[in-house]
UniProtKB/TrEMBL annotation:
Gene3D superfamilies: P-loop containing nucleotide triphosphate hydrolases. SMART domains: AAA. It comes from Clostridium ljungdahlii (strain ATCC 55383 / DSM 13528 / PETC). Residues 6-229 form the ABC transporter domain. CDD domains: ABC_BcrA_bacitracin_resist. This is ABC transporter ATP-binding protein YxlF. The gene is yxlF_10.
Amino acid sequence: MEKYILQTKNLCKNFKGQLAANNISFAIKENSVYGLLGPNGAGKSTTLKMITGILKKTSGEIIFEGHPWSRKDLKDIGALIEAPPLYENLTARENLKVRTTLLGLKKSRIDEVLQTVDLTDTGKKRAGQFSMGMKQRLGIAIALLNHPKLLILDEPTNGLDPIGIQDLRNLIRSFPEQGITVILSSHILSEVELIADHIGIISNGILGYEAKINPGEDLESLFMEVVKKSKREMR
């Protein structure tokens, strides 16, 4: 029997009469990478912010590990949404030390996550001097500190060069083997196709498609069909 770590049922978010998320229902299998695809402004970030407690849902359900989501579940969820939350005047190690102190975690966790994201050799270099790719990896290291079962990454490859994208791709693909389920949001179809096991396509706040990725499938045509259909339904 397949086990789902996260499910949403008719999840909605209303901003002053406008539905940014409109009855979103999806299911994320444990130890997999789920790609949440959609154009900019489609409702991806809004949906992920509700799952991480940044935004309060208007209606619907969020089910985490078989029970209704509560803020207590955040101890098992790591997230990198929008810009990495870095203190740019601190080193990578110092940034992580601040978080371990706040979360009451063992200091040994710092070396573990630095090794995971390949940032062990940054020394006294401050985070403000890091490349975009290094900042993203440090943001992921922060999200990994609490040993999350679910890791949420919102547009993590934005602004990265090809080498940075490949490094991040390999890192994300390694997580399910470590018992970490990943939700990856993006508008870059080719990247999600290489990383994800399953995809959901969201447009105008509506989840119009959800399925396992099939080899050789024309993801671009599928994506455009879902986006055009959602636009027609909004008229």
